[in-house]
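batch job 7 of whatever, protein = YqcI/YcgG family protein
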Amino acid sequence: MADLYAKDWLDTHMNTLAAWKQDAFRQFGNMIADPSNAYPCIPGRQGFLTNNLRFGFAADPRSEQAVIDVVKLLQAYGRCSRETGKFASLVIFFHTTADMLNSFSVEDYEELFWSVLKRVSANDTAPWPEHISKDPSHHSWEFCCDGQPYFSFCGTPAHVVRKSRMFPHFLIAFQPRWVFEEINDSTPFGRNMKKRIRQKLEAYDGIPAHPSLKWYGQADNQEWKQYFLRDDESVPSKCPYTFMKNKLKAVGVLFHK
């Protein structure tokens, strides 16, 4: 059963979870809420500190169970995300086994990431939103599940150079598109936020920001290029994601608030 958790609940019920889940959540908190305030994602840090984020745990990302877990979590999250706060995001930690930790490269995790998104789409029963292109090369494209568009972010144990994309467990975060209604290039708040994030990102990683990082909706922007960043500046020649037909019925999920 894939459960949706709030930080406040996890803080007080941590010992009820499996050891790997406890470690994933603790590591995430140590990273995003570090005392030096170095982590570059300002909205993510604010969301964590103000209980806006929601968390879920999924099986080995290579398994079909993991896909079922992610679908269930996104279905549940889509129904409550607007009630969680303006810095909303869903963070899903995957059971990352020893063989993955010992042998998977950044490229292996990249393939795994896109595999998860494709398989989630294949098991999503809701129609694709009409205002979102199904073509990843179009500037309006965004990953969607259960009728909701999300910006997706992946962290892996294999990243070394881009420290902002390194996490000890395979991780995928889903940020609802509505969060960016105020954080975009058309508002002074958004432009200032972007400037501050880029400055912190370059300081955190020690290298220039990836050239693929742009604003959603820009004519030359392709969101998929920002979902998974390699340690260098290379990108795949085309998006690995392809829209797939639905096949799985919606299922329930427990809430821990």
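notes: Residues 74 and 145 are 7 Å apart (CA to CA).
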